[in-house]
Amino acid sequence: MAVKDPYEVLGVGRTATPDEIKSAFRKLARKYHPDVNPNNKEAEEKFKEVQHAYEILSDEEKRARYDQYGSVEDGGMPGGDFFGGGGFGDLFDMFFGQTQQQARPRMVGRDGEDIQVAVEITLKEVLTGIEKEVRYRKSTLCGSCKGTGAEGGAKPETCGTCGGQGQVARTQQTFFGQMRTMTPCPTCGGHGVVIKNPCKECRGKGTKVEEHSTHAKIPVGVDTGATIRYAGLGGDGVGQGRAGNLYLIVQVQDDPRFEREGPDLYTATGITFAQATLGDELELPGLAETVKVKIPPGTQPGTVFRQRGMGLPRLHGGARGDLHIEVNVRVPKKVTAAQEKLLREFAELSGEEAPKGDDGGIFGGFFRKK
């Protein structure tokens, strides 16, 4: 199988900096790590590809060699005759990307898992911010074996099959010559160590899943989908592995009184025909305070009044957003005879044609009490 372009595997450009390469590797390694994807062969192969790509691009000499020759083998294209250099087997390696790697000591350890927890807050809590107790389950170091996985906290023994390398060499004679590949050790599973007397408490895993809690501060101005990262509060790392992270995913509850667009809030209220015509001053409940709205005479249905600074705060500071209040004129479904008489007089004084309510017209019966 041909070795894939390491830049393509990590998803970076050929001008990527070492920091960008490292960041891309960490992200993909965490995604495809065997501990995160147990018994997933596809993820395991992807994890190996990511590791191999990083080994090339994190080494200045190997990266320069790959950029020049498309391979990390010394010398690039063979010199002399077509089969010169290291022989037909080496030529196959060069064209098909079979890189022979020396086994190297493995660092015994396992990173802790990242954990995501959904946190629900109210719209008013977006305004004020809040501190909440968050409870979740995570892997914690076994107290009985102190994370070694061996009974009584004993140190794991070096694997006798691979000598602690975690890999074993396999050589095959093929039509193209000898092929030497490195595969995970079948005895230790690639860890380089074996546990002959597993801890009874954690069954040799070194960790146990337990409930944990922390006090999380939800800042003002957050919106649904906002992610808050707490480094090191995820699962415990084993051996030389690092602790995972805790990610809080914010979910803001719907508030039937308001619609939200960023820091701005939108709401609606009804006013009477008399209020719209003559004007009035309303006192309406805002998100956390009473809002006074002055309705000028002649206000039309659908008019929106903007109350500055009555919305939500911005996530990274700054003035609060605005509250937008749309007013709609409420039309009564029934009127008394006296009200009907006054409305007809109003229409006549306004120079309007009298409504044909009594005549069964399009507004027939609308102004009459039923």
Shape, per Cα inertia axes: elongated
Estimated structural class: alpha+beta
The level of helicity is: 10-25%
Q: Please, how many helices?
A: 8
The topology string of helices and strands comes to: HHHHHEEHEEEEEEEEEEEHEEEEH
Query: Strand share of the residues?
Result: 25-35%
The separation of the N and C termini measures 86 Å
Describe this structure in words.
Helix content is 22%, strand content 27%. It is an alpha+beta fold and 370 residues long. Strands 12-13-17-16 form a 4-stranded mixed beta sheet. The chain has a 3-stranded mixed beta sheet with strand order 2-11-9. It has a two-stranded antiparallel ribbon with strand order 1-10. Strand 5 and strand 6 (177-184) form a beta hairpin. Helix 2 (18-32) packs antiparallel against helix 3 (41-57). The radius of gyration is 36 Å and the shape is elongated. Mean pLDDT is 82; it is low at 74-107 and 359-370.
Topology diagram in text:
Blueprint: H1 6-10, H2 18-32, H3 41-57, H4 60-69, H5 88-96, E1 109-110, E2 115-121, H6 123-128, E3 130-141, E4 157-158, E5 167-174, E6 177-184, E7 193-194, E8 207-218, E9 227-230, E10 238-239, E11 246-252, E12 259-261, E13 264-271, H7 273-278, E14 280-285, E15 290-295, E16 304-307, E17 323-329, H8 337-349
Parallel strand pairs: 2-11, 13-17
Antiparallel strand pairs: 1-10, 3-8, 4-7, 5-6, 9-11, 12-13, 14-15, 16-17
Helix pairs in contact: 2-3
